[in-house]
Amino acid sequence: MSFGVRSLLVHGRQSTSLIIGLCVGISLSLILTPYLEEDCSGGLSHKLLGGVRVGNLRDLRSSGPAEEEDYEPRIILKNYSKEELAKPEKPEKLLRPRYYATELGIREKLLVAVVSSKETVSSFGVSLNRTLSHYVDKLIFFIDGFGTKKMGLNIPIVGFKEEKPLIKVFRILSYLNENYLNEFDYFFLVTDRTYVHGRQLVRMVQRLSISRAVHMGHLLDHPDALYCSLDAGIVLSHSVLRMVAGQLSWCTRNTYSDSDTDNLGRCILHAVDQPCVSSLQGQHYNSYRLREDVDVVSHLQLVGGSSLVQESITVSNVPEGSDMFSLHIYFLQNDLRHLNHSILEHRREIETTKPSAPAIRREETWPVGSAPPHQPATRFDVIQWDTFNATHLFLPDDFHNTKPLIGVDLLDIMSPPPPTHHHRPRQSVVNASVAHMHAKAKGRLEYKELEYGHRRTDPARGVDYILSLVFRDNTSGLRVTRKLQASRLLTEPEIIPMPYVTENNRLTLVLPVDQSEIVEATQFVQRYEAECMVKGEQTFLMLALLYKPGVSSAGDDKDVFKSLKDLALQYTQEHHEAGSKVGWSIVHTLASHPSELAIADLVLRKMQEDTLVLVTRHSAHITTDFLNRVRMNTILNWQVFSPVPFTQYHPDTVTDTESYAKMDINKNNGRFDAYNFDHISFYIGDFLSARRAVAESIPIIRNEKELKLDRPQEQEFGLYGLFVRGSDLHVLRAPEAGLKLGYREVGCAKKASNQSEHLNGLCRLQEGQSYGLRSDLSKLVLDYIESGQKV
């Protein structure tokens, strides 16, 4: 027997047990599998199978043909027609709310509802509004009878038609539930004869947790009181108001007391099953009640130092509306003392902990605790110091050596001492510094003059000053100089609430066109058609056609504007489906060119008050982005918009002609012309209000015959000056990259006779900057000199 056979027999004996085990296992699996399959299929509920036959597991695993027919899935269609199935499925549009705060469930903090009456709202209500409205998020006065329009008051008033004084407080709760439940965390109810310390009230509700039901106020004066006085004020949380609103019908049926406090307290206790408390979550609600017919000023002098008064959130039973202001002054002075004490405590704490701070974070700032000064990253970020004396600023910009100290600069630095009857002096930096030196020297120094000073505006901290003041030493009679450092720090920034506006408003463009500007106006209309009418913008172009005396406007061949009118009609017919069109208004002028206000009086008088207007010029290249910014930045009864356009230089002074032709915004192609006030947007209602305000000094031109009353030389800055002088609207003045003007001659010589000397000076500055960069102009001058020398 060979060696290989012998080796196989030896290994076979060793593996006999393994081979036998494998054979037994395979045999058992083949025998038991059909029985296991029947158990699995039999165990399934007929209800779960739903009458559908399940194939054997062996058949599903097998690659060969099954003993029974394979299972085929069926698609069950529920009452869908073939046409509906053939249509492609459209994705469901996600509807989102207008504001992020609504989607995230963010609410404002506090709404104050004041229970008032027709007899007291004009006195107590107005006083309470002036002392409280700037602290809280919203303030509403509720009266019986009628609302704001008939009262003629500039405060928010809600009037109920039927006079039902017993259930008036429940009608207020119903109104708050229907209109403001999901917008505020807390609601504060109070009567109008109660002064409210707004700062303390807001501080208290900010420290309360909105997760708990809040029913808080000043308890009535008896031991087992469960109600809080409505005169002292009641704070309700969002959750409490929601529960009370569901029980208002019960509250109305169970109103049997003449006291609003009892009726309201019974209602809240029934709905919430939570009595009113004066202390909650570590916060205490204190109120002080004045005696009848008390003299408020004398009473405050007697008890003003008491903590019972100082810690009060409300003071009820105020005798007169004017006493609200006396109480307001008292609490403001008290807040100011606490604030100054808090500042001193924080400064001591900073000085104490400063040695323990890391060396790399230890910054020496003055005043202590103020923000550190700006650290420039490069030499281009260095903030320069402005030098001044009592009359002038030196090197205010790159173009002037001196500038008179006038306007806000004068008020900031050198405002004159106020009359003796003023309560407190105007805080110019010189006045404050002199007062500081007088207090420090105890009358030994007498102020003489400002020698010089430096000022730096730091966006990180405020305005810093270095002053050199001259005094007379009363003890020696000598003149002495004292150097002082002062700082006017930035206060806490506040977000100004603005009305909601959209980009969907229809915009009317008004373009004045003189007879000498027909070619340029035609090009503007062509650009307008391509940019606005083709794209379907909600705009309307109004051409103000200015005819000279004796020129026909009949639309025949003698009409100088016939070609422009035909082009307007053509574009209007081509785009009539989009709703965009071009129209015109005819103005027959007299010998002189009418002013901008006179043209506006004649052209805009037929438009509705809610019409949004943009006055433009034929050299403008407008974009849709610019028009949308006009819509967003112009707000009815709030704001007008005067964009600063990018104006191109004279083409002969520009070297990069390709970039110039594309009107790229580049310092070599042009500049933002701060002297250009030709473009302004506003609403017709705001224009008419401002026009009426200055009608005595600048007569309104109602027809072409009254153009003889026009005085252009008395109207500085045209429409822009009108809104600055004749209205309280905010005038937004900002550079606008979407408004580009091609070069055109400024022509100060032609305007000189119709402008004041001040405007002529500004016009010359504008004309001097309109030609090109100083470097490019200097090269042209040098080239001209060299060419002259060669000749």
Describe this entry's structure for a reader:
This protein has 28 helices and 26 strands. With 791 residues, the chain is an alpha/beta fold. The strands form six sheets. It has a six-stranded mixed beta sheet, sandwiched between helices. The chain has a six-stranded antiparallel beta sheet with strand order 14-13-12-15-16-17. It has a five-stranded mixed beta sheet with strand order 20-19-18-21-25, with helices on both faces. Strand 8 (279-280) and strand 9 (283-284) form a beta hairpin. Helix 9 (168-180) crosses helix 11, helix 11 packs across helix 13 and helix 19 (518-533) runs parallel beside helix 20. The radius of gyration is 41 Å and the shape is extended. The model is unreliable at 41-67 and 417-425 (pLDDT under 50).
SSE inventory with pairings:
Elements: H1 3-14, H2 16-43, H3 46-49, H4 57-61, H5 82-86, H6 100-104, E1 108-115, H7 121-132, E2 138-144, H8 148-151, E3 157-160, H9 168-180, E4 184-191, E5 195-196, H10 198-206, E6 215-217, E7 234-237, H11 238-245, H12 248-253, H13 260-272, E8 279-280, E9 283-284, E10 287-289, H14 296-303, H15 307-310, E11 314-316, H16 323-353, E12 386-388, E13 392-394, E14 402-404, H17 407-414, H18 429-441, E15 445-458, E16 462-473, E17 479-489, E18 507-513, H19 518-533, E19 539-547, H20 562-574, E20 581-588, H21 596-604, E21 612-615, E22 620-621, H22 624-633, E23 639-648, H23 657-661, E24 670-672, E25 680-683, H24 684-693, H25 718-726, E26 730-741, H26 748-751, H27 757-769, H28 774-790
Parallel strand pairs: 1-2, 1-4, 2-3, 10-11, 18-19, 18-21, 19-20, 23-26
Antiparallel strand pairs: 4-7, 5-11, 6-7, 8-9, 12-13, 12-15, 13-14, 15-16, 16-17, 21-25, 22-26, 23-24
Helix pairs in contact: 9-11, 11-13, 19-20, 24-25
